[in-house]
């Protein structure tokens, strides 16, 4: 019995020494990363969602400010210009994705249409030109999250297709709640477009930090 007790105490002492060493090592590494400015940027962290908001529809339609599709590493801001003027929309696209002004807002029936540039050039100085890179790789059933200032609106992909930019019409249903993402298949070319459609799943409140 005495031998067993001694062995237990020795193990506990060793574990304590290991814990202290680990904590000191963590502090040193964290401090080094902070000095070289290599810590993760909090602005790019994914918002934390709580449980679905049941029976609490927003009192007024909300504007999207961010869109995330984790399976394709898509995470971009969304602008909401008030005009459909081409120059206005082009200027907004230089900063990220854009909600088309006459499409639905979040929280109401209709279709939210969000579009953005895509480019597969090896060097692109303005990353907004790559905002919607890879949306054609989304799969049916995968999740797209669109965020307002205080809620997550979650959608499930229902189709991914190529549409002819000169003849095909992108349908925007007014019944139900839907999301459509659109991008050209190659930056600077007006050929085909990738079109992703998704159906509304639920609304989630964002956890406050």
Major sheet summary line? 8 strands, mixed, barrel
Quickly give the structural class: alpha+beta
Q: How many distinct helices?
A: 2
Anisotropy-based shape: globular
Lateral strand order in the biggest sheet: 2-3-4-5-8-9-7-6
Radius of gyration: 24 Å
State the low-pLDDT regions, or none.
1-43
Order of helices and strands: HEEEHEEEEEE
Which whole number gives the mean pLDDT? 77
Q: Per DSSP, what share of the residues sits in E-state strands of 2 or more residues? A: 25-35%
How many beta-strand elements?
9
Task: Please explain how this structure is put together.
It is a single chain. The protein has 209 residues and is of the alpha+beta class. The protein is 20% helix and 31% strand. It has 2 helices and 9 strands. It has helices at 2-35, 86-93, and strands at 49-52, 66-69, 74-79, 97-99, 110-115, 143-147, 151-164, 177-184, 192-206. An 8-stranded mixed beta barrel has the order 2-3-4-5-8-9-7-6. Strand 6 and strand 7 form a beta hairpin. The radius of gyration is 24 Å and the shape is globular. The termini are far apart.
Task: Provide a compact summary of the structure.
This protein has two helices and nine strands.
């Amino acid at each position: 019995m005495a031998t067993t007790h001694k062995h237990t105490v020795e193990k506990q002492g060793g574990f304590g020494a290991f814990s202290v060493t680990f904590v000191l090592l963590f502090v040193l590494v964290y401090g080094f990363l902070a000095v070289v400015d290599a810590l993760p940027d909090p602005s790019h962290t994914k918002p934390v969602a709580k449980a679905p908001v049941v029976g609490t529809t927003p009192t007024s339609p909300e504007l999207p400010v961010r869109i995330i599709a984790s399976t394709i590493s898509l995470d971009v801001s969304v602008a909401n210009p008030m005009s459909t003027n081409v120059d206005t929309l082009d200027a907004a696209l230089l900063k990220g994705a854009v909600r088309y002004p006459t499409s639905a807002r979040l929280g109401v029936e209709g279709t939210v249409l969000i579009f953005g540039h895509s480019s597969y050039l090896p060097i692109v100085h303005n990353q907004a030109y790559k905002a919607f890179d890879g949306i054609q790789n989304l799969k049916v059933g995968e999740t797209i999250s669109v965020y307002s200032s205080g809620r997550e609106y979650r959608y499930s992909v229902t189709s991914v297709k190529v549409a002819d930019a000169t003849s095909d019409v992108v349908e925007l249903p007014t019944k139900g709640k839907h999301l459509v993402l659109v991008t050209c298949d190659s930056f600077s070319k007006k050929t085909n477009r990738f079109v992703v459609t998704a159906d509304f799943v639920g609304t989630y409140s964002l956890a406050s930090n």
